[in-house]
Amino acid sequence: MKLPQAFALLAAAALATVGGGPVGLTTARWARELGARRVTVSDPVPARRRTAADLAGSDVVDPTTEELGGPYDVVVECVGKPGLLDACVAAAAVHGRIVVAGVCMEPDPYLPVAALMKELSVRFAVYYRPDEFVEVVGAFASGLIDPGPLVTRTVGLDQLDGAFRSLAGPTGDVKIIVDPTVPRGNAT
Question: Which of 54, 60, 69, 127 has CA atoms 20 to 30 A from the CA of 44?
Answer without folding.
Answer: 127
